[in-house]
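User: For this week's homework, look closely at the record that follows, marking any run of repeated tokens, and judge whether sequence predicts the tokens.
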Amino acid sequence: MAYKIRKGDQVTVLSGRERGKKGKVIKVDHKKEKALVEKINFQTRHLRPGHPMAPQGGRIERETPIRLDNLALVCPKCNKTTRPRFKKLDSGSRVRVCGKCEEHID
């Protein structure tokens, strides 16, 4: 199955407190419809001493997933946010195409 946002894509956040920021997709969970984006949507977790994540305790900042409908793909060619289209090649495979400049994204 072909998905519009994949691991390694450059995306822009469309809504929320991180609106307008760009980042690279680290991980995508299509069942939960969420994506983990590099350096975006940080949350702080306070840990007690002796916790396996931080034996000395303290605060840990980490990225948390964002819903896929709050992300827009950035075309690597024209550098604009786009809604990707799918084009069928002669070989029968489908590729993502920028909706604005008609260039292949894959």
